[in-house]
Amino acid sequence: MSRVLRVADPANHRVVEFCNRQRLRRLHLRRLRAVALGLLASAGAGPADLSVAFLDATAMTRANEEHLGHAGCTDVITFDYSDGTPPAAAAPLRGEILICVAEAVTQARHFQVPWQTEVVRYLVHGVLHLQGYDDHGREKTRRMKAREDELVAHLEQRFDLARIGE
Question: CB-based contacts of 40: which residues, under 8 Å, 6+ apart?
Fold first, then answer.
């Protein structure tokens, strides 16, 4: 069974829809709502219409192969549904972010961080892609990773990220 939560921040023209389609870890979507809206504000995003789906490894593997032509599972996939013009500071973000919770659990063990923080890192990564960041090439990857680290650290200070898994 999937669980869906749609949240709106009308004052800032932001809508985020969450769909939990995995059962490996419990996700508190209402707490994720606050984190996502905090992320959009901290990242300087203007209006946004985002869909975030939390998938199991099987569904993520299928999405990775069908949509990107890559074999195997991956951590996060971002689909940009904007009009195709280069992103500007106030340009609306429109897209879909697929997050593999199983991959977050595995990577969290590897990096010795809580799996909830890794899930939030994937959300940050997806939003940065929608803002025009690219992780192909050494310099672009370095720039994106630095911004990702900055935003995750900021969110860790503002929110108890462990509580998204309660």
Answer: 9, 12, 14, 16, 48, 93, 127
Query: How far from 163 is each of 21, 30, 76, 78, 115, CA to CA, in Å?
Result: 19, 10, 21, 25, 11
For residue 156, count other CB atoms closer than 10 A to its CB: 15
pLDDT, position 87 = 60
- Structural domains of the chain in order of their starting residue, each with its CATH number: 3-165 (3.40.390.30)
List the structure tokens of 106: 């595995």
Read off the amino acid at residue 64.
N
Q: Buried b / exposed e across 14-36, counting CB within 10 Å, b at 16+?
A: bbbbbbbbbeebebebebbbebb
Strand 14-21 relative to strand 48-55: parallel, antiparallel, unpaired?
parallel
Phi first, then psi: give them for residue 144, nearest 5 degrees. Answer: -65, -45
Task: Tell me the two tokens of residue 141.
Answer: 């990857």
pTM of the model: 0.94
pLDDT digits (tens, 9 = 90+) for 145-161: 999 999 999 999 999 99
